[in-house]
Amino acid sequence: MQVNDTSRHAMPGADAVSDSVAPDEIARFSALADRWWDPSGPMRPLHAMNGLRLDWTRRHLPAPLGAGGRRARVLDVGCGAGLASEGLARMGYDVLGLDASEAAIAAARRHLDAHPLPPDGGMLAYRAGSAEALLAEGARFDAITALEVIEHVTDPAAFLRLLAGMVAPGGRIVVSTLNRTWRSLATAKIGAEYVLRLLPAGTHEWRKFITPAELGTFAGQAGLRVSDTAGMVPGIGGWRESRDLSVNYIACLAAP
Length: 256
Ligand SMILES: C[S@@+](CC[C@H](N)C(=O)[O-])C[C@H]1O[C@@H](n2cnc3c(N)ncnc32)[C@H](O)[C@@H]1O
Known about the structure:
By secondary structure, the chain is of the alpha/beta class. The chain has nine helices and eight strands. It has helices at residues 6-9, 23-32, 44-60, 83-91, 102-114, 131-136, 156-164, 182-195, 212-221, and strands at 73-77, 94-99, 123-128, 141-147, 167-178, 225-233, 240-242, 248-254.
């Protein structure tokens, strides 16, 4: 289905509509936007894993400052209220945070206003809208991050093709997501949403989780190569990197 999303972008308060955007998913995130930055609020798991995700991402992205002092440009797609976008900008990247939720982007902007970046660091801009619109404008980035996003889009294979169209030759795309296993059903879905109540019920649809093999297939179809993968597991003292990919994992996709 082709939906013209440019008119929706212009409407304050309207979430983006496009082929990759599932409106029910975006509405769920918009409803949580005001509490996004509360580390013990509904986004608690994202806060808890953010340090690990950023550290792993930093090791797999080009350096923030390239030859001649040019800053590497990073698109953080599905940035929500900017947990990772801000971290990447503080590392020195020139970051564009993009999200289909107007409310999440408004929360991101409010947080950035209250916590400005150091003047000698990276740059950070936010935009509410779809990846399709950005691609249509011919935008290109040295690297793209899509952290905990691909399990919320309508068609993950098409979403990766979109991202592949926006990454520069030789660039990197870092994706973190949830594996579709019985273990993730028990822990990330039933445990997190209904037993421990770490997340609002209905945050995830288990059938939309993506196995590493599926991610590899979708990446290949998009002309990308999986260059590294790691599991992310919660533990005492915080999340840590692991070889266990059975629930949360992160992957680096390399563009030719
Ligand atoms: C689980 S949140 C992750 C937010 C952020 N990446 C993080 O990890 O802190 C998923 C986000 O993806 C956004 N999203 C889902 N589908 C999208 C799409 N097709 N284009 C842009 N944003 C999308 C949602 O609005 C939501 O903010």
